[in-house]
Amino acid sequence: MHIEIGGFFGGSTSVSVRLQEGHISYSVSTTELFGTTIDSVNVPKKISDAWLTSLAKLQIKRWQGDYSPDFAICDGTQWRLEYKEIGKQCRHISGDNAYPPNWDDFIEVMDRLAPEAALIDAEQLEHIELNYHRLRQMNPESTAPNIPSNFIGDYSEKLIIYRKTETLTYKKGIGSGCLVTHEYYVRDGVRDLLDNCESYFEEFNFTDTNSDDKTPRLSIELTRHNGNQTIKCYYNRHGLPDEWEELINYLTPFLSFYGLFGELFDFPCL
């Protein structure tokens, strides 16, 4: 198997993989400035078997021969793949700013085998988790059954965006006995959401001010391809990161589009 990925105006990276007598070897080559060449890295049998199993699940033999966007793009990413199974003809597959549905899974499988190729950006966001917490007194006018109007308890909200499962999960915790969860699975949409969120965290600066225990708190957990980062602050205009408002204004339309209620809650006219 040989995969080459590059931009119209930039360099390219190629990875070649060969299976011989049950063992895998691979080589890497880049044409960028101070390009890299890695020749014939032999992979242990146990790792080879596990990697081949992951590759087989991708069903590359079912990919189309060509992937192109609906409209012309002058720049972007072009790629080509030569894939040959034992006893079968070599397949030639290519793409221009368009990819098979499981392309990200393929790149992840390739990255596990040949991390030197750096096919995945080290700063790529894999997971975002926003945790909000405060002590809350119930509003007497909106008190739930069996909960006293003067009830004070923990109130929390959690937003989890996870690239691998392509899910966004929004949870609300009211006291110790009530948890409300909304989960959204949006193929490609969640991954695009994470990619677009990256810019908000590039300069996520804030000043953590002193406050009391009654002030709501926020923690932000970021998982990138090359490591984790945790930010903790008070949830007020002095404690929040400078880019917080922009981030929330970006996330809100995504949640609003899919909404919390559907047609089940619309009383039929007929």
Automatic annotation (TrEMBL):
| This protein's name | Uncharacterized protein
Per the UniProt record, the source organism is: Sporolactobacillus sp. Y61
Q: What is the lineage of its organism?
A: Bacteria, Bacillati, Bacillota, Bacilli, Bacillales
